[in-house]
Amino acid sequence: MLSITGILLTAVTIAMLEVPALWKKRLKKELVLFSMILLLATGIGIVQSMHIPLPNPLDWVSSVYGPIGRLLDSVLN
Amino acid sequence: MKEKKEKQPQTSSQNLKEQALKEKSIMASLPDNLELIRQQLGNSSDIVIRQVGLPGEIAWAVVYTDGLADKQLVSEFILESAMLHDRVKEESKHDPASISPQLLASNVLAIGETKEISNFGQLFTSLLSGESVVLVDGHAAAITAGTRGWRDRGISETLTETVVRGPKEAFTETLRTNTAMIRRKIKDPNLWLETRQIGRVTGTEVSVMFIKGIAEDKVVEEVRIRLERIDIDGILESGYIEELIQDETYTPFPTIYNSERPDVVAAELLEGKIAILVDGTPMVLIVPALFVSFLHSAEDYYHRFDISTLIRILRYIGVFIALFGPSLYVAITTYHQEMIPTQLLYSLAAQREGIPFPAFIEAIMMEVAFEILREAGLRMPRSIGPAVSIVGTLVIGQAAVEAGIISAAMVIVVSTTAIASFVFPSYSLANTMRMLRFPLMGLAATFGLYGIIIGTFAIVLHVSSLRSFGVPYMGPFAPLIISDQKDAIFRMPHWAQVTRPKLMNRNNKRRQQKPASAKPKP
Amino acid sequence: MKLTEGLSGRQFALLAAYISIGDSMLVLPSIPANAAKQNAWISAIIGLAAGMIVVWLISAAGRLYPRMTLMQSSERLFGKWVGKAVSGCFVMYLFLSISAHTREIGDFMTTQMMPETPIQAIHIMYAGIMAMAARLGLETIARTGEFLFSFFLLFLIVFILFLIPEIKLNNLLPVWDGGLKPILRGSITMTAYPFMELAVLFMVIPGVRKPEVMRSNMVKGALFGGIVLLSIILLSILVLGPDYASRSIYPSYALAKKISIGKFFQRLEVILAFMWLLSSFIKSAVFFKVLQTAFAQTTGMRTDKGMELPFSMLLVFFALLISSNILDFHEVDQYWPYMDMTFSVILSLALLAAYAMRRSAAGRREELGHENKGKD
Fold first, then answer.
1. Mean pLDDT of chain B
2. Average pLDDT of the residues in A2-7
3. Could you tell me which of C9, C55, C341, C43 has the C-alpha nearest to residue C223?
């Protein structure tokens, strides 16, 4: 519970620091992207702190490159 | 005549009136002029209006400020030369209208400096700077005569930047004396001086001095622009100007150097820097300023190069201790005890046995206590100052250790740090280190050495991003300029200082020709 | 959207050196040591040689459009959509790399130096300083590296000098006993981690003041980094012995612990920690700043400032996400080099090939044009 509040607080602080400048300069697209990444980070953080397992992106990488690695390994053995 | 919209509304009408007054021309009628002067100054008792002329003769008057104008000059060279002048006496009987202020200035007044003025703004500025104003009835113009002469502290020894070898003169609070002291060091016609008045209420005179041809024109122009931009009620000290023109406000590091020694200022001018002198304070600003300038002392150049280099290295070690001393102690004793050699570990552990506070709290308490003592020491009257500091440090510190509140090692660490911080020749940088020490201690207490290292990275990042009037702050270290290393940490002999610092000037690089060996041939 | 005002050649070389030493200084030596045992130093030499070829390749591709970032040049050479896809993949590659760096620092700290500290705290501090560095710009990062380089060099020399008394040349024997294959296995990571990851410099090249010195400086820096790594691997075997070196996760740290001169004992690990944190920090800072610009250009943002904080927050959690524990994380060494290879070797070749095709197409068009003109 404490960590979730911490994460939310951090997200809100970050938003407070950056959003006014972006709003003033009317950078809509940048604001959208900013919020997207911030939400993504907050989401992942909250899920992690609740100890719910999340898919690991490196698993996807290893499924792409793993076979090559194993192939080369067997060649060099 | 129009005022800018950003001014506060309640003073805008005042500003309009002030502006109107400034531009009002001097009137032809002498009594009107004098009446306006009296009114505007509220009949201040130190404004002297000396009217001359018998009825039937031309009437004229001298106005000056008692205390600011040299009364001897006024009576001898203005009043005496005009009143006893034959032609004036003649003309005033026959053709009074021909006695004009301009005539007085050109033929009659034997004073050294005169200037013609036409409006009240100039009149008041000159009057209140100590000059005398000569008004003649029937003429809508006036003459100012240079009669400045007030009492000031006089050229005395510098208290804050003492040296063992070298000149001991320091600047005074009078602008003209200071510019003269600099001129005495540099007798080159290319040493130029520009003066302006800054401060709507104080009207402080601020001068910019530089050596044309050595200083970069772009930087000089930038200085001019920034000074013009200042719009403030009063400038009382160069520190005001410093804060108003510096590159960045949110940094603990000073980006403008200051000194009260003419030899230091002259040396900086020779390197292509620009001096800003402010009337009323002996502290002269020097711009642009690099980090290394704050660790250089004038004495480095007067002693031999070997001892100077060693002392400079000592200063850098002092920087390290002053900045990292307490943090390293806190980090090592809290997180990384395995780094301490075993014997030392035993004694430290024994010392910390009875101490109720964790190392971090101990350190903070001691540091704060020390800062309080230091500030108090500055304000104490001379007679009890030393006694109280001895009491404070020795007795209280000793008592605290014996009472078991603080460990002796901490006292040692904090005092060493404090003394190391006095190694800085420049007070501004010492303040920076004082401030930075505390966040580092905080980082050390929470994250140990990792925290200190990350904190160091943050500091170096910050400092590497600073610029002083366009010049990168970390000077010859980053970007690395090898040819300037001869005067950064090391101080190579004078005959090896062939070029000026590269960052200060692109043209005029060579300082001197390589001299032939001075040894006499056997 | 300029990256910087202008890096000098020397600053560029230093960045290349820092990036090649980077995190490899700590995590690399155990891999060749594991694969080739006492012949790991031969792996290192082979890796260094191969790495130099990679550097040459990268700089050749970088030279094509020295004033354009990778995003711009890939759009130009591959067309808008393929170019954007390439850029997008590059962005993800960068982000995963930084996550990996951060995780490595966290793992090291929590296992070796500060076991009681929660790993998130380490990540937060690291991500925080990344954000600060990126906000201040590439030139500031370069200057920071320049300033701290003398300390790095000093510590490195001290480190090496004080290890020399501990060298046992016997540890190199028997030389070449397993055959070429284990040696080659060890050299893969040696080529990938220090040198292929220099691909990030694609985005730094536009910031160099004089593009003609880019190649020589990249080579100089990479060579320096490679030699440093080679020395560390060599020393690991000479001092620790092939057994210990292959079993330890952080051989360079174990090396530092071995240094003992008289009373000065255990102090010197800090020196290693500082060196490694510095090289890793500069590498990650460059990656992070480049990530900002790459992301901004790929998505068509008008400024590359402002996204640092969300990304660093994402970084903290990603660093936790990518692996459940330290052993698991080292599985990565099986396939990460090939990802590196994609973005360095394959990308460079693709860029060069596309450029060559464009040139010949343009050449043919010119010929036809000339022919037509001749007929007048």
1. 83
2. 85
3. C55
- The beta-carbon neighbor of C311 closest among A21, A37, A58 is A37
pTM of the model as a whole? 0.86
Q: Both tokens of residue B144?
A: 């100012």
Residue B192's φ and ψ, nearest 5 degrees, are -105, 150
Minimal CA–CA distance to C202: which of C66, C304, C341?
A: C66
In this complex, whether B and C touch, counting 3 or more CB pairs under 8 angstroms, is: yes
AA letter at B417: T
Distance from CA of A49 to the nearest CA of C (A): 10
- Mean pLDDT computed over C55-63: 90
Contact by Cβ (8 Å): C186, C40: yes
Contacts of C132 in chain B (CB under 8 A): 458, 461-462
Distance, in Å, from the CA atom of C250 to the CA atom of C24, rounded to the nearest integer, reads: 10
The token pair that represents C250 in the structure block: 């952080």
Q: Do the Cβ atoms of B378 and B386 come closer than 8 Å? A: no
What is the C-alpha to C-alpha distance for residues B445 and B439, in angstroms, rounded to an integer?
10
Higher pLDDT, B487 or B506: B487
Best of B459, B461, B467, B485 to disrupt the C interface (most C CBs within 10 Å) is B461
Element (H, E) at B206: strand B204-211
Strands (E), B22-154: 47-52, 60-65, 114-117, 132-136, 142-145
Neighbours of chain A (3+ CB pairs under 8 A): C
Q: What's the angle, vertex CA B488, arms to CA B157 and CA C267, rounded to 5?
A: 110
Query: Across the strands, what pairs with B192?
Result: B210
Backbone torsions φ then ψ of B143, nearest 5 degrees? -120, 135
Tell me if B161 sits within 8 A of B286, measured CB to CB: no
Domains with residue ranges and CATH for chain C: 9-331 (1.20.1740.10)
DSSP state of A25: T
Q: What is the mean pLDDT of residues C203-229?
A: 90
Q: How far apart are CA C243 and CA C246, in angstroms?
A: 5
CB contact under 8 A, C303 and A30: yes
Q: How far apart are CA C18 and CA C286, in angstroms?
A: 10
Full residue range of the structural domain in which residue A29 is found: 2-75
Q: How many domains does chain A have?
A: 1
* Section B474-482 average pLDDT: 77
Burial class of C85 by CB neighbour count within 10 A (0 to 12, 13 to 18, 19+): middle
Euclidean distance between CA atoms C313 and C95, whole angstroms: 12
Mutate to test the interface with B, among C15, C147, C155 (most CBs of B within 10 A): C147
CB contact under 8 A, B465 and C140: yes
Q: Look at A1-15, B210-224, B391-405, C158-172 and tell me which has the smallest mean pLDDT.
A: B391-405
pLDDT in tens, C323-356: 777 677 778 888 888 889 889 899 999 988 888 8
User: Does the distance separating the beta carbons of B335 and C270 come in below 8 Å?
Assistant: no
Residues of C in contact with B447 (CB under 8 A): 114, 117, 121-122, 125
Distance from C-alpha of C161 to C-alpha of C149, rounded to nearest angstrom: 18
User: Domain map of chain B by residue range?
Assistant: 9-145, 175-289, 305-472
Joined together, the tokens standing for residue B476 give 């010859």
Q: Identify the weakest region by mean pLDDT among B496-505, C45-54, C111-120.
A: B496-505
For the purposes of burial, counting CB atoms within 10 Å of the CB of C336, is it exposed (0-12), middle (13-18) or buried (19 or more)?
buried
Tokens 């397992």 locate to A53
Q: Are the beta carbons of B457 and C265 separated by less than 8 Å?
A: no
